[in-house]
Amino acid sequence: MEKDNKSERGARRKRFSAVLACTLLVSVPLAALAAETGAQQVTVHLGDYRFHPDAIELVAGQPVELTLVNDDKITPHNFTLKGPNAGIDLDAAVPAGESTTLHFTPPTAGSYIFYCNKKLPFMKSHRERGMEGKLVVRPAS
User: Fold this and answer.
1) Alpha-carbon distance 115 to 101, whole Å?
2) How far is CA 115 from the centre of its chain?
3) pLDDT at residue number 78
4) Beta-strand (E) ranges in the chain?
């Protein structure tokens, strides 16, 4: 019995090491690419009916790499940001326990609300439960 547990732990460690190595192999080049392109990098965590941070500041005309991480284990979320006058229209699903990355360039300065539009029948929407934030785009200097 003890030998089986050690063998199982060893197998789990190998799988974890392989996943970690693959993650690093993918994320390091992506981070380097964002740095090379001068992209503004922002990571937002979604969970417990909130965004963290719930306020984002960017500079107009500069590319953005926005990584969305859903920290919830069961609840799916999304990131919705509509700024029709500024040419911003983002709507990305982020399944439970997963992440996604958006690339966009805010063309003009302004202030915009982002939110999660998920809703179960007969319940308040995630936005009504407080899951919204603010994006402020500053003019380029």
Assistant:
1) 16
2) 12
3) 97
4) 40-47, 50-52, 55-59, 64-70, 77-83, 88-94, 99-104, 110-115, 132-138
CA distance 108 to 96: 32
Please name every residue paired with 64 in a beta bridge, in sequence order, or none if there are none: 40, 104
pTM of the model: 0.72
| DSSP element (H, E) containing 26 | helix 2-37
Query: For 116, which DSSP code?
Result: -
**Residue 55 is encoded by which pair of tokens?**
């306020």
Contact 43, 56 (CB under 8 A): no
Higher model confidence: residue 84 or residue 46?
A: 46
Instruction: Tell me whether the omega of the peptide bond preceding residue 107 falls within 30 degrees of 0, making it cis.
Output: no
Rg of the chain taking only CA atoms, in angstroms: 19
Backbone angles phi, psi at 20, to 5 degrees: -60, -45
Question: Up-side HSE of residue 131: CA atoms within 13 Å toward CB?
Answer: 24
**pLDDT category of residue 9 using cuts at 50, 70 and 90:** low
